[in-house]
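Build the 3D complex.
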Amino acid sequence: MDLIDILWRQDVDLGAGREVFDLSYRQKEVELRLQREKEEEKRQQRQREQEKELLAQLQLDEETGEFVPRSAPLTQDTATSAQITQNGAFAEQDGDAMAFDECMQLLVQTFPLDEAAESVPPCLDASDPPSTDLMMPPDIPAFIQNPLLPGSLDQAWMELLSLPELQQCLNMQMQESLDMKPSVEAQDPNYSQYLPGIDHLSLVKTEVCPPEYINTYDGSFNTMVSPNLSQMSLNVPEVGAEFRPEEFNELFYPEMEVKVNSGPLVSDGGNMVSQLAEISSDPPVNTVDLHSFSPGSFSSGKPEPMAEFPDSDSGLSLDSSPHMSSPGKSLNGDESFGFSDSDSEEMDNSPGGMESDYTEIFPLVYLNDGAQGSLSEKPPTDQQEMKAKNQKIEPAEASGHSKPPFTKDKQKKRSEARLSRDEQRVKALQIPFTVDKIINLPVDDFNEMMSKHQPNEAQLALVRDIRRRGKNKVAAQNCRKRKLENIVGLEYELDSLKEEKERLMKKKSERSSSLRKMKQQLSTLYQEVFSMLRDEHGKPFSPSEYSLQHTADGTVFLVPRIKKILVKNN
DNA sequence: CGAAGCTGTCATCAT
DNA sequence: AAATGATGACAGCTT
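Done.
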């Protein structure tokens, strides 16, 4: 379940938001893809007529929507051009006529589980016995053809499938599902919750899994899976029959779904617990731990705080996702009292960051809860405890079950965690005020509120701490905002000044050019005027002997240069 | 793996 | 004197 959860988050991190899991969204995608595929099919038919060889080598890549050279699917070594053509033919003739159950029965009959398991390569055998079965007969692949999933999801699920532990789980689940077809049907109800079109399936939902649990963890899986299940028989005729990794994934989603839903619930009889026990180096992974992840268990496990401060969440973790805040709350609420910020920082990271380690962390947390006593001792105690926790957690990570996805999961806004922690502290000290009020209430109201409650020293210190931190946080945000605005303003001013400088330089250049032009014109005019002047003999004046000078009033005189020189000398 | 950026927090001073 | 705002500095975390 942890792995599934991790991978689901990985899907989200990879860009597959909840909208991806939405039926309508996916249906649109399907329509587009189908349209594309029809076009491509037409083109392919033309190509078949022209070149059969090309046909064998070309294949519609559902991820990119392009025809690419056919590469053998992961587990399909037998993929040949002949089979491809067979698949295509089968898709048209048999695909729509054969229901999923019928195909499954046929597969089970044709390929017993033992053979199927043996025939599957190691990397996928665990995860998809059914899919391998489906692949084997050339007529089945039509099922698998479903271009619903985006590439990112496909990748994420491929990663999921590549996990050995999960493959084991999936393998066992798959075998069970093959034996008991109803189990597969039981999964649908969950899917239907997120699929408007599959309402009829929702009848069994409550029997399979608590609604809260489904809401928090199963939603994504459900939406991913359900379209495929519901439309599996419908998709068969329309899409080309080809094997792809993502198709396998789609087939497996139901199984994962089953695990997610039923794992914690049916943990006693199911394989999940045993698998988890094998996976985890820490033996004490039990159903209680698993249940601790579900929202319902959160509320049930910590009834008092939740009941006492029902609106505390809304007060501060406005932008925090419920999924994230919930675990943190249950975690911190139990153990958090009056510890220092640094402690709380550590708290933040471990619970929020390693979600897959919930099973390991939560038990520890519960222990801590019980151990928590007075308020004043908390800071050092918590630090030590956290260190101990981390040490305990590390082995599990070292065992290879904490993976890169965890680091992605760690990407949470500290604000969310901080608020959540403060809330938990408030709850822990049984302070009947929301953190929001503690921080944002005016001084008078705040003091009045506090006086009414008559808080003890620890409560008062915590409340004032929270208020100070909260206000300072806002102040820091504003300060940084101002700083950025100042930077932006200065940059803008700098740009303006540069533009101004540019403009002035350009103006200067223009003026200089204009001045040169005017000098040129003046010179021309001077020569023109001078050349028109004549002495008493009708001869022009020599420019070397005479020059023209003008006074301020515009009067022009012809001045002999010698005289002028004499005047200058004088 | 290191640099850069973001955010919360603390210390300090100013209001 | 207390509360609050502003801001530099620091640490932890993410990108």
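The domain at 421-538 of chain A is CATH 1.10.880.10 (Transcription Factor Skn-1; Chain P).
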